[in-house]
Amino acid sequence: FEQARGGTLFLDEVAEMPMALQSKLLRVLQERTYFRLGGTELLEADVHIVAASNRPEPTLRDGSHMRPDLYFRLAQATLTLPPLRDRTEDLPALSEHVLARLEERFERGVRGLSLAALQQMKRYEWPGNVRELQNVLRTVYARTPPGELAMRRHLPPSLRSDDEPSVPEEEPTGDAEAPPASAPE
Asked: What pairing do the DSSP bridges indicate for beta strands 42-44 and 33-35?
């Protein structure tokens, strides 16, 4: 709360917090004050809260995973994001973003995904959603030789099938000069 003062505090997987910690969080949200761990000075909690959970909304309200009073305190505006398997049209943009961040960090010159690789990724169910996509793209990035385009063969075996791609492997998903690129729809 102190580090986020005047800004936004993101609480990921808030429903996974132990109930005792949820009680303390609720008190801070209601009172807008807190004590530092081991401290004696009462501090103001001047933050906006954004909370996320992978649990279905009914289980957040019913008290099985989250205190209902905390849920209703946090749920002033809710947004339900469908799983990745239901929005494969987002794969090109998400992949481009993840690959660009990897390129910023490692500077290997990976030029993006081939259309065949992206096409294969769209056929996958993505049970791990965006976190699984990030892990797959880290693997793809590591398997792709520097300066080359990430091909279907660079995908982990769990994503590859014996089907022949309907798009040639050599075609980039966008401008070959701009790393990484996404596929046109």
From this structure: antiparallel
Residue 40 reports pLDDT greater than 50 = yes
Q: Under DSSP, is residue 171 helix (H, G, I), strand (E, B) or coil?
A: coil
Instruction: For residue 93, give the 3-state DSSP assignment.
Output: helix
154: Cα within 13 Å, side-chain hemisphere: 25
Segment 145-182, tens digit of pLDDT? 999 999 999 999 989 876 655 555 555 554 444 444 44
CA 106 to CA 108: how far, in whole Å? 6
Give every CB contact of residue 139 below 8 A, 6+ residues apart in sequence: 154, 155, 156
Query: Do 169 and 114 contact (CB within 8 A), yes or no?
Result: yes
